[in-house]
Automatic annotation (TrEMBL):
UniProt lineage: Bacteria, Bacillati, Actinomycetota, Actinomycetes, Propionibacteriales
Family: Belongs to the short-chain dehydrogenases/reductases (SDR) family.
TM segment ranges: none
Species name: Nocardioides luteus
Protein name (Swiss-Prot/TrEMBL): Short-chain dehydrogenase
Pfam families attached to this UniProt entry: adh_short
SUPFAM superfamilies (UniProt xref): NAD(P)-binding Rossmann-fold domains (SSF51735)
Key words, A-Z: Oxidoreductase
């Protein structure tokens, strides 16, 4: 076996793992045999999810993680290394969005979304990417959004952060060529998650109306978060020599009655 072959044991880190896509990804990877490290600001939630994974026979740890803090990221990375050893997979999933007209959103709020969605992804990349390059193997998976190719009104900051994320990863993919480290983008379409749950009902309804107006919500179906987790699992379980660089995962429209 080549010294660069994937080992049987591949510890995986999932950020934003307290709910939605992150939580489902942790469960899916654990089921697939990956030791998982869950990170999020909601420590009670990741503790519960990790305990449930262990109860089902998986290997899981959980630690506090704020991707907007260099110190928090460094502490998290050190704890994960002590618990699980070298990290083979990073799923950068932490994200946030606060809707509003782009001209009205306070710059501080705009910057906060960029800090989590783009700079946070870079912070965790810096924490785990160099070790993967040194070992000549690893998977870096970044959760983008369909707003990166189909921007949605009243989500200007979120769109800007995801456009920036995809630009960063596109450059990264070229820089990593020949290192044995794969960087991939997952671009979820409408998916049930905690993102948006804190929006006032009237604001959420207005935003959805605007999506319909611009043809961005052609049908009412949303995916379950597990669909995105399954896509991520497919990416990181691909054999060496196969690089799934970008994948769009969207809800299928309801089947129409035959005419």
């Amino acid at each position: 076996m080549s010294k660069y072959a994937q080992p049987d044991r591949r510890p995986a880190v999932i950020t934003g793992a307290s709910s939605g896509i992150g939580a489902e990804t942790a469960k899916a990877l654990a089921t697939a045999g990956f030791p998982v490290a869950l990170g999020a600001r909601r420590v009670d939630r990741v503790d519960e999810i990790a305990a449930a994974i262990r109860a089902d026979g998986g290997e899981a740890v959980a630690h506090p993680l704020d991707v907007t803090s260099d110190e928090s990221v460094a502490e998290f990375a050190a704890k994960v290394a002590a618990d699980l050893g070298d990290v083979e997979v990073l799923v950068s999933n932490a994200g946030v969005t606060h809707p509003g007209a782009t001209v009205d959103v306070p710059t501080e709020t705009f910057a906060g979304q960029v800090d989590v969605n783009l700079l946070g992804a870079h912070r965790v990349l810096r924490a785990f990417g160099p070790g993967m390059i040194e070992r000549r193997r690893g998977d870096l998976v970044f959760l983008s959004s369909d707003v990166a190719v189909r921007p949605r009104p009243f989500m200007g900051a979120y769109a800007a952060s995801k456009w920036g994320l995809e630009g960063m990863v596109a450059a990264l993919q070229m820089e990593l060529e020949g290192t044995g480290v794969r960087a991939s983008i997952v671009r979820p379409g409408p998916t049930h998650s905690d993102i948006g749950n804190e929006w006032p009902a009237e604001l959420g309804g207005f935003v959805l109306e605007q999506w319909v107006r611009w043809g961005l919500a052609r049908h009412p179906h949303f995916l379950k978060a597990r669909a995105q987790a399954d896509a991520i699992t497919t990416i990181v379980t691909a054999p060496r020599g196969v690089h799934i660089s970008t994948i769009d995962v969207n809800p299928e429209a309801p089947v129409e009655e035959s005419r």
